[in-house]
Amino acid sequence: MKCPKCNSTHSRVIDSRHADEANAIRRRRECENCGTRFTTFEHIEMSPLIVVKKDGTREQFSRDKILNGLVRSCEKRPVGYQQLEDITNKVEWRLRDEGHAEVSSREIGEHVMNLLMHVDQVSYVRFASVYKEFKDVDQLLESMQGILQEKNKRSES
């Protein structure tokens, strides 16, 4: 494992713990060259998941793309980074549990929006506005009305 500070490949493990609901191992390491401490994660190697984009092109699934989109949509909102990690993990595991080798970007976006709606509605609208490519205010209002209807359903229950 390369040290992020000096690029040395000599480090020792200080601490190991389960992470990501025991699907990964978190390791604290210390570089034997410069003494810098850093964290690494070991994940189970999964078969590749291919995303079919709107234009028909295919690319390998990237959880970082989901997480980056969530971070942008939740800027200056009371949503913790761990919540965003949890959403990303739930989306990835749900897609993998379905067992398909290919999944549409539309399906991924829908899963993300369904989870995000229950975390922060403003962030949901931000994410949806980029994902659904709203062309005008009417489309935005339509989406917001859907949120209000969902909120009313939950308050009636």
From TrEMBL:
Zinc finger (unnamed) residue numbers: 3-34
ATP-cone domain sequence ranges: 49-139
Key words, A-Z: ATP-binding, DNA-binding, Metal-binding, Nucleotide-binding, Repressor, Transcription, Transcription regulation, Zinc, Zinc-finger
Pfam families: ATP-cone, Zn_ribbon_NrdR
Top-level taxon of the source organism: Bacteria
Cofactor binding note: Binds 1 zinc ion.
InterPro entries in UniProt: ATP-cone_dom, NrdR-like_N, RNR_NrdR-like
Cofactor annotation: Zn(2+)
Ion transport found in the keyword field: no
HAMAP family for this protein: NrdR
NCBIfam families referenced in this protein's UniProt entry, alphabetically: transcriptional regulator NrdR (TIGR00244)
Physiological role: Negatively regulates transcription of bacterial ribonucleotide reductase nrd genes and operons by binding to NrdR-boxes.
Family indicated by similarity: Belongs to the NrdR family.
Protein name stated in the entry: Transcriptional repressor NrdR
Designated gene of the protein: nrdR
